[in-house]
Design goal:
Layout (H helix, E strand, L loop, with lengths): L4 E13 L11 E4 L2 E6 L1 H16 L3 E4 L2 H11 L4 H13 L18 E4 L2 H11 L1 H7 L11 H8 L4 H6 L15 E3 L2 E3 L6 E7 L13 E19 H7 L4 H17 L6 H4 L7 E7 L17 H4 L32
Antiparallel strand pairs: 1-9, 1-10, 2-3, 3-7, 4-5, 6-9, 7-9, 8-9
Helix pairs in contact: 1-9, 2-3, 2-4, 4-6
């Protein structure tokens, strides 16, 4: 069967901001076309897209190492002794699959789990049902797997629509892996750009009139530019991950497209407020393979916004004569992006 893909490309101008920082707090960069560009990682943008999709669908998933900790806290709230509740939490991980999932200091699992948030209540309920067995094995050096392995595994392997959309990697549980239907590229500026430094001070409001100086001073980094953004969804795979549910696939696909266009990573939002939407979006349905338009911006001289003598039409805000146009959406070829 031939696969069907939805490609989404967007050009988005972002003013002074630091949407995605590296380990030193600087805006991330990439060298492309012999020039340095500002970059926003796919993980950063994908996370805020996922949260938007989950809010639309009313089913949240959690990517976390804190499942045993959450189980422990829930049981303590029900009056369980602290040592028994902690043991139950570690048993949730130990009873997952044939070999279990390891836990580290603090009760964290050794790997990230990705499961529906509703699964936490079910895991707690399993512990409550098997409290007697947990009490009998508390304190043993090698207690083994006390909770029902098949049931714990079934809960941890359950999916939401966002897991079906974005995928899950969990090698510790056979059959838990989900090949995500969506792929999101790193966004990068269509032109040369580098981080810039901002020297700032904070005034101490209670300094006397004769006092000089500030209460705090520091430097931070920011960047600005026009970003090319790209994502693609394998509609055929999404439908398969959703067990052939056409209606659910349409809902998920529409939500993903909307949040791809309208979401924005939230880093340093209070000090930059960079709340823009794409100036132009190009959506295409393809039957052969996905196609990113990133190469159109490899050489900055070919960047449409810099090279074109006629600026591309802005579809947001809508003009009085284009009342049928959707915000920030173009459905066909434009002067600003190749077909």
């Amino acid at each position: 069967m031939t696969a069907l893909y939805l490609d989404l490309s967007a050009l988005q101008s972002v003013p002074a901001a630091n949407l995605n920082r590296d380990d030193l707090g600087s805006p991330k960069t990439v060298r492309y076309g012999h020039t340095s560009r500002i970059r926003v990682s796919s993980q950063s943008w994908k996370r805020v897209i996922r949260h938007g999709v989950e809010q639309d669908l009313g089913e949240k998933a959690a990517r976390t190492r804190l499942v045993p900790v959450k189980v422990r806290k829930a049981l303590e709230q029900q009056g369980w002794p602290a040592d028994l509740a902690e043991f139950a939490g570690t048993q949730v991980a130990a009873s997952a699959g044939k070999k279990g999932i390891g836990t580290e200091q603090g009760g964290h699992t050794s790997v990230l789990l990705f499961l529906p948030e509703s699964g936490l209540e079910e895991l707690v309920a399993v512990c409550v049902e098997h409290r007697e067995g947990l009490e009998q094995n508390l304190g043993k050096k090698k207690p083994g797997q006390i909770l029902p392995v098949q049931r714990i595994e079934e809960i941890l392997k359950r999916r939401t629509a966002s897991i079906s959309l974005l995928g899950r990697m969990l090698a510790e549980l056979p059959g838990a892996n989900v090949d995500g239907a969506a792929q999101v590229a790193h966004a990068f500026t269509t032109h040369a750009a580098e981080p810039q430094r901002d020297y700032f001070t904070a005034v101490d409001d209670w300094l006397g009139d004769a006092d000089t100086g500030s209460g705090h001073l520091d430097t931070s980094e920011f960047s600005a530019g026009v970003f090319y953004r790209y994502a693609t969804v394998n509609i055929t795979d999404l439908l398969a991950n959703l067990d052939g549910d056409d209606k659910a696939a349409r809902t998920v696909l529409g939500s993903f497209a909307e949040h791809f266009l309208l979401s924005l990573p939230q880093a340093k939002k209070n000090s930059t407020a960079p709340h823009t939407v794409p100036d132009l979006a190009y959506l295409a349905v393809r039957a052969q393979r996905p196609l990113s338009l990133a190469a159109a911006f490899e050489h900055r001289s070919r960047t449409a916004m810099a090279a074109s003598p006629v600026p591309p039409a802005r579809l947001w805000p809508p003009t009085p004569t284009s009342s049928t146009a959707s915000p920030a959406t173009a459905t066909g070829p434009s002067t600003a992006m190749p077909p």
